Amino acid sequence: MIRLKNEEEIAGIRKSCHLLADMFNEIIPKVRPGLSTFDVDKLCLDFMTRYGGKPAWYRENFPGAVCISINEEVIHGVPSKRRIIHDGDLVSIDAGIDLDGFISDSTHTVLVGAVKPEHRKLDEVTLECLAAGISACRTGNRISDISNAVFEVACRHGYGVVYDYCGHGVGLDVHEDPNVPNCPSRGPNPRIQAGMVLAIEPMINLGTADVYIADDGWTVVTEDHLPSAHEEHTVAVYPDHTEILTDLRHPS
What's the chain's average pLDDT? Predict the structure, then answer.
């Protein structure tokens, strides 16, 4: 069931989203070679608790405050003291904050040091996919319009679009209806309505779209072990516009 949010609920979700954006603004410059993903996870957790929030992923029993996926890891990377960040890595940080029961969700892929041009382009195109998906997310369209917009941009560049995982509703829980695929789908295709709050999140691979789950039971990895990029925003739909709630440049 799709839960349409009222203005009071969106205000609470917006506050959580702005806090998440502030966390990324503080953490992203600190991601550097030599840190472990455990170190980055702790930085994120310390920020959340400092401002009265807690990791949204605790509702999912995930073994960390945030998901940190490097290079061929697409999503759900488990923080570890043994997983060290190196120069040239693509480090995707997927985080959500539960602030007084209101949930935010966003992902940023951090380019660490001297990233290869083809890997930098992959993230640039993933950001372009995200922008296209958000542009298509407006009252009166359908969820498939978001999916098709993301897919068209990625295919134009010859990239693989992950089809096993997708965006989703968010705001009062971590994962809500509807699903928001990044490629054409035969699943439910509801019309976009004012009051929807959605997490739009392209996961774009340099090579194949196929993925598998690693032995830890969480980390999703590209089948060909080529890099993946992941970018995500939480947005709120209004009758006449769509607001990016997790915009890093949000007004204070």
Answer: 97
